[in-house]
Amino acid sequence: MVATANIQYAWTLFVPEIQKTFGWERAAIQVAFTLFVLVQTWLAPIEGYFIDKFGPRIMVAFGAICIALAWVLNSQATTLTGFYVGAAVGGVGVGCIYATCINNALKWFPDRRGLAVGLTAGGYGAGSAATILPIASMIETSGFQETFFFFGLLQGGLAFIAAWFLRSPKKGEVKASEKLNQTRRDYTLKEALNTKLFWLMLLMFTCVVTGGMMAVAQLGVIAQDLGVKEFKVDLHFFVMAALPLALMLDRIMNGISRPLFGWISDHIGREKTMVIAFSLEGIGIIALGYFGHNPWAFLILSGVVFLAWGEVYSLFSALAGDAFGTKHIGKIYGVLYTAKGIGALFVPVGNLLMEATGTWSTVLYTVAAMDLFAAFLAITLLPRTLKAHVAQSSIAGSAPDKGTASAHA
């Protein structure tokens, strides 16, 4: 997961250099990011099928080859189409690795799903923190093409080696939780799609993930337009430009948020944790739009936004495991994860909205409203829907004719 992170999180460093070299419109370049996310997310249900069929080792090894190939293609690209193809290949690779690792964590740790998935997803969220500065430095000294090539081979090689240490739990090796509110049976994908809970989760996931996706793709652009990109931050023991420092801090906060909020949700429940996190993100984004012209405020508030956004990948996957069981979780969470693909469609729209209104505040306030709406759903509709769902599954799970019944508590 650490080795795959730069495919998404370091992209913003390359966009200005690609634009400077080829002179393309910013929105046209960002289509590559949208394609990456669409491929990564919309193929997740298919990847879930292959995870169940071939197991985690083959899937991650294949994904590792794809993430290496993606950046090698980017290093040779001289047209927008070339970058779009590289983005699509990268989306396949990251999707295979991400879906497999999250799926495995859900299966191994039923009583600590929030923390286990949070730590796993945290590798993806914080994975680029250590390489943001080397990548930025290499782009400056050697150009973005050589940087794509070198780090593509490095990241792909590391992920390929790690693949062979993975395995799924054997039958009877893992016991279900006896203290968490979890379904009493394993749902099939078709059964999950027929529940109100699934569609409510998909709506909330989409609302929250949209803001984070827009921030990930556009943070460098926002910093430039707010006039803080080149500001030198003097922390006495080192001096760094505001944007690379913000990116590094954001990766760390993003990585911390996933196990932190996942651990919290294991103790106070997924719904209450969602209310806290989604409200924090919405307020943070509003403040970023209002105070973002101040370099120090930009640093702090962008960190708050990433802290409150990263947790969606631990909370929704853990909740999916609780609600629908783990036998078919690869397929079920694969479909739920398409919320990220839906959110990615709004990334280019953010550019267009900014150009139409002349300010990023309009975009940020719109996204904040979506976050606060999700928080409202988490405090009102989600608890009732989840309680009714678990109660219904308990009745169905205890029926003698339900072959899909399981020992989930």
From TrEMBL:
Indicate yes or no for the key word Cytoplasm: no
List keywords of the entry alphabetically.
Membrane, Transmembrane, Transmembrane helix
InterPro entries associated with the record = MFS (IPR011701), MFS_dom (IPR020846), MFS_trans_sf (IPR036259), Oxa/Form_antiport (IPR026355), Proton-linked_MCT (IPR050327)
Q: What's the domain of life for this entry?
A: Bacteria
Q: Give TM regions.
A: 27-46, 58-77, 83-102, 114-136, 148-166, 197-223, 235-253, 274-291, 297-320, 332-354, 360-382
Q: Name one Pfam family in it.
A: MFS_1
Instruction: Name the SUPFAM superfamilies for this protein.
Output: MFS general substrate transporter (SSF103473)
The residues covered by the Major facilitator superfamily (MFS) profile domain are 1-386
Q: NCBIfam families from the entry?
A: oxa_formateAnti (TIGR04259)
Protein name as catalogued? Oxalate/formate MFS antiporter
From which source organism is this entry? Ancylobacter koreensis
Provide the gene name from the record: oxlT
